[in-house]
Design a protein that fits this description.
This protein is of the alpha/beta class. It has 16 helices and 14 strands. Helix 13 packs across helix 14.
Length: 463
């Protein structure tokens, strides 16, 4: 049912180097995009990526489309270059069955841009919440609230994905004070499913000189939101231990450094364990899974979202400084520690596919006008969307009805070549006789075509 679909991914880039190149390998938001691509190998994926990137362009069923995202985290939630965005897509040749929007605040902008091209009426919309706007998640009280834009996105979408079933509670925190509107939390929950994440497999261990003993790894960003203040307080009177922070922006006392994936694994393997001090806002965490993946203990501040990651029975939660320091002193006796984390990616995979199949499986009430003419063209070797439209409706540049015809074609078994960036239909041999009977009364006279088709290679961006 999901074979041959075309998915547009509008990403949420947050990691750039000093020259402005997107650091996709270190961007947890982008890792979610790659997971959804891997979950849907029989679809074609259009991924709107930052203009400067080094993402390998090697898959025939993936097309990268460059767009000037803002490099500023906050601005990316509000900045939208509609003029440039409209120019990225030519709907005479392309179709999107789903849009996966990883910045919920931007869904309205995307839909307006498509509407200007008479497109999007039959396009399914999924939202992925990588962060939830609330007082606790804003870095400063000076930052204007964005939760109304996020609620707007939920209203416009078909399905909302949060990391956990409790993540939307943070959204409801915005309504503790009286304001112009209230929120229907049950409506949000009814529209919600989850996308819990497993950490990616670490590369092969790469030894390097650590020059440290009794290392405690703090593998989180050096930021107030990750609990660095509490971490410094809890570790300040542990002189026999050394905290190693993997964020190169950490102070020198905390061995802030740049490590590749292999060196990072070596650090975890040769440490006493790692620590997580996220003590307030959080919807998920990947870093705590890294240490557990190499059988190293991870001390975790007891927080509801962290329990969703490792389970309620995890033995190394702490709440107080005394509890933490007692656990630290016991780490030397935990050389055989193991803890199995639930296969979160499997849950995500099932939730994504179930949501898509529920939408695509809805029964059609009628056959779209001109659908038989399209079938007749495909049967006679006219396969590309643009060429078919020229035969059936030669005087119309764009027509929203084409989206409903596409849905019908896919429903009855017509194939779309997922390795082509352009819609390219074909009729499987097993259903040719059936289609011939369906179009036996079609009177369309096929005109000779001299249309010069676009040529696509992987050597350059084609938009």
């Amino acid at each position: 049912m999901l074979d041959g679909l075309r998915v547009l991914h509008y990403v949420s880039p947050v990691r750039f180097d000093t020259s402005g190149v997107f650091q996709h390998d270190f961007d947890s938001n982008y890792k979610v995009v790659e997971k959804t691509i891997s979950f849907l190998p029989n679809c074609h994926h259009y991924v709107v990526v930052p203009t400067k990137h080094n993402i390998p362009d090697t898959r025939d069923n993936v097309t990268f489309i460059t767009y000037p995202y803002s490099r500023d985290l906050l601005a990316n939630r509000s900045y939208f270059d509609g003029v440039t965005f409209r120019k990225l897509f030519d709907f005479r040749y392309m179709d999107f069955d789903f849009v996966f929007c990883h910045q919920p605040e931007m869904l309205y902008n995307i839909l307006v841009s498509f509407n200007d091209k008479r497109y999007g009426q039959n396009m399914n919309r999924f939202l992925f919440f990588h962060w939830v706007d609330c007082t606790q998640s804003r870095a400063s009280s000076a930052i204007p609230p964005a939760f109304m834009r996020q609620l707007e996105g939920i209203n416009l979408c078909d399905k909302t994905f949060f990391h956990t079933d409790i993540a939307s509670d943070w959204l409801m925190n915005n309504f503790k004070k009286q304001q112009s509107t209230n929120s229907n939390h049950q409506y949000i929950k009814d529209k919600t499913t989850t996308f819990p994440l497993s950490a990616n497999k670490l590369d092969k261990s790469e030894p390097f000189k650590m020059n440290r003993n009794n290392v405690l790894v703090f593998n989180h960003r050096w930021a107030k939101s990750t609990g660095v203040n509490r971490m410094m307080e809890y570790t300040e009177d542990l002189p026999d231990y050394k905290v190693w922070c993997t964020d190169y922006q950490a102070p020198e006392d905390y061995v802030g450094s740049k490590l590749n994936s292999g060196q990072y694994r070596y650090l975890l393997e040769n440490s006493l364990g790692s620590m997580c001090f996220v003590d307030n806002y959080a919807t998920w965490n990947l870093s705590i899974q890294d240490g557990l993946s190499v059988n190293k203990p991870v001390l975790i501040y007891d927080q509801p979202a962290m329990r969703k990651v490792v389970g309620d029975n995890y033995p190394l939660f702490f709440k107080t400084k005394d509890e933490f320091q007692t656990q630290v002193k016991n780490l030397k006796n935990m050389s055989n520690f193991t803890w199995e984390v639930k296969n979160h990616d499997k849950v995500f995979y099932n939730n994504l596919l179930d949501s898509m199949e529920n939408i695509m499986g809805k029964e059609r009430k009628h056959i779209p006008k001109d659908a038989m003419n399209w079938l007749y063209c495909i049967l006679n070797g006219i396969n590309y969307k643009h060429d078919i439209a020229k035969q059936v409706q030669p005087n119309i540049q764009l027509n929203s009805v084409w989206q409903y015809i596409r849905r019908y074609l896919l429903e009855i078994g017509v194939k779309d070549d997922i390795n082509s960036p352009y819609v390219n239909y074909s009729i499987p041999d097993y259903m040719r006789t059936r289609v011939e009977d369906m179009v036996k009364d079609v009177k369309l006279e096929i005109e000779p075509t001299t249309i010069k088709r676009k040529i696509v290679t992987k050597k350059h961006n084609w938009f």
